[in-house]
Write a structure and sequence with these properties.
alpha+beta; 13 helices; Winged helix DNA-binding domain-containing protein; globular
């Protein structure tokens, strides 16, 4: 009989793989590889995401990995910017291309006159000369294709040309307007020609499993995850969840007892953990899920207590005072408040090392 895993059991299994049951003493590049990438729509969140997962993590650790080209920030899963290892980018970029091509549909009428067979080589030619910002890419392509919408030109390049964002010495690794370079130039090798979706699914399960085919599709944006999981079935373990859905997992992945303690933790905005499953109850209750995103689709920062998201958080820095504001979804027990205050003060010292005072407030 197939074993059924409770929501709490899935929570603990996923937290173990996400390095959220205890901080681990591994390098930043290794951690990002174990996570199979971190969503990086903005540059700051991955720094916080690694701080909350790694023992002794420093900003300089991620800076170094970016400048050593062990890690890159580039468009990948769900056609969004991710921080990934250079090896994973070259391995999985080709598998993502069909999904990225499909993303062009959102252009609608703005794609009128857009000819990828001409635009893509033109963009590559521009970027072979020097790295460019997207404002520069759009402007220069507009000169060559004056009848095509400039935003359509830029979006086509973002999805159809393998690019990486160039790191700088800015505090969080990248300026507000970053330059992009061709991936094969920055990494000295382009994406692998092979479609490695099977390997991608194994890596997803190792980082986020046990998970369903629908979960894998939600995380990756790909439409063919079920076929890959079927091919891999002989080498996988299968479970069911409390609703009878089939879950896949790699055999040797951790699945600790659901009674294992989970410490208070803070996840940054856009953290991949809260986006990696169709059924997100293993992290956030359905009743609280609408509060996870804003009207303009920003994914809010959440705090975990006993392994689950119990509220959102934000920080403020004024007059050398760093303040962390907690907004619980429901009233928290005092033990939770105490744990979150201690962890929150440590996070504030990481975010604002020059602060003379740290304050944690809890909204009633």
């Amino acid at each position: 009989m197939t074993e059924t895993l409770s929501v709490r059991a899935l929570n603990r299994a996923t937290l173990a793989r996400q390095m959220l049951l205890s901080r681990e003493p591994v390098p930043a590049s290794e951690a990002v590889g174990r996570l199979c990438g971190m969503q990086a729509q903005e540059p700051k969140p991955p720094y916080l995401g690694l701080w909350t997962r790694l023992e002794g993590f420093q900003v300089s650790d991620l800076h170094a990995a970016l400048h050593d080209r062990a890690l890159v920030r580039a468009t990948l899963m769900r056609a969004t910017l991710h921080l990934v290892t250079s090896a994973d980018y070259t391995a999985f970029r080709t598998a993502m291309q069909p999904m990225l091509d499909g993303g062009l549909r959102v252009l609608g009428d703005r794609a009128k006159g857009l000819d990828l067979e001409k635009v893509v080589p033109a963009a590559r030619s521009l970027l072979e000369r020097e790295p460019l910002t997207f404002n520069e890419i759009r402007a220069q392509l507009q000169e060559q294709f004056p009848e095509v919408n400039d935003r359509a030109l830029g979006y086509a390049v973002r999805l159809c040309v393998p690019l990486v964002m160039l790191p700088t010495e800015d505090r969080w690794g990248f300026p507000r307007t970053s330059r992009f370079a061709l991936a094969d130039s920055w990494l000295e090798s382009g994406p692998n020609a092979d479609d490695s979706i099977d390997e991608l699914m194994l890596r997803y399960l190792a980082a986020y499993g046990p998970a369903s085919a629908a979960d894998a599709q939600t995380w990756s944006g790909l439409s063919s995850t079920g076929e890959a999981l079927e091919r891999l079935r002989p080498d996988l373990r299968t479970f069911t969840d409390d609703k009878g859905r089939e879950l896949f997992d790699v055999p040797d992945a951790p699945r600790p007892s659901e009674d294992v303690p989970a410490p208070a933790r803070f996840l940054p905005e856009f953290d991949s953990l809260v986006l990696a499953h169709t059924d997100r109850r293993r992290v956030i209750a359905d009743a609280h899920r609408p509060m996870l995103t804003t009207k303009n689709l920003r994914v809010r920062a959440v705090f975990l207590w006993d392994g689950f998201a119990h509220g959102i958080w934000e920080t403020e820095y004024k007059r050398k005072v760093a303040t962390l504001k907690l907004r619980p979804f429901e009233t928290l027990p005092q033990t939770a408040v105490d744990e979150l205050r201690a962890e929150g003060e440590a996070m504030l010292r990481f975010i604002e090392p020059d602060a003379k005072e740290t304050v944690v407030t809890v909204e009633e």
